[in-house]
Specification:
This protein is α/β, with parallel strands linked by helices. The chain has eight helices and five strands. It has a five-stranded parallel β-sheet, sandwiched between helices. Helix 4 packs antiparallel against helix 5.
């Protein structure tokens, strides 16, 4: 079983990954934030470091997927390789923060990797409005995220919605997080888990 959690910056992916791993006794794969050598530099100078950052994430997530498939275990993954390719890199390119030459190079690299992998059994998309994202980003207080602009988050949200509307790699579950708090409210978390259970049971029935 490979479950992946997608969502914008601050939508609650890491929190939900941790809680689902504990509940289902799954292995967890997290986004490599703390050890990422480019992230701080990227938020200081996006144009200079955008390509380096995106290639780092692409490589990291490709390795994660290979490890998940090779392990034979059940995993929950914090963010997907598709978000890098369909949301973050195109957004940087459209904002003039990644050159067309670098973007074309990046896309070719992703397309090659994509030909070797399959989508997760279940994708959980955490849908959140920009005010919710800002509130949760401020709560966790990461220094390098202080400079994230509202228009950047809004652009990303628009790309997430466009990507999700055409997603066809496997089962999809959309969770609206504006009106729930699964990080602190057990009932809200229970409601999310009920929805996931229903999707998982559906997976087993169709296989």
């Amino acid at each position: 079983m490979h479950v992946a959690i997608a969502g914008n910056i601050g939508s609650g992916k890491t929190t939900l990954t941790t809680k689902l791993a504990k509940h289902y006794k799954w292995e967890a794969h997290y986004e490599d934030v703390e050890n990422n050598p480019y992230l701080n530099d990227f938020y200081k100078d996006m144009q200079r470091w955008s390509f380096n950052l995106q290639v780092y994430f692409l490589n990291s997530r490709f390795r994660q997927i290979l490890n998940i498939k090779a392990s034979g275990k059940s995993f929950v993954q914090d963010r997907t390789i598709y978000e890098d390719a369909f949301i973050f890199a195109p957004n940087l390119h459209s904002m003039g923060l990644m050159s067309s030459r670098d973007f074309d190079n990046y896309q070719q690299l992703f397309n090659l990797m994509d030909s070797f992998i399959q989508g997760p059994d279940l994708l959980i998309y955490l849908r959140a409005s920009t005010p919710t994202l800002v509130n949760q980003i401020q709560k966790r207080g990461r220094d390098y995220e202080n400079s994230i602009r509202l228009d950047y988050l809004t652009r990303l949200n628009e790309r997430y919605e466009a990507w999700i509307s055409e997603y066809s790699k496997g089962k999809l579950l959309i969770i609206d997080v504006d009106d729930i708090n699964f990080s602190e409210n057990k009932e809200d978390l229970g409601g999310v888990i009920e929805k996931i259970d229903a999707e998982i049971h559906g997976l087993f029935k169709t296989n």
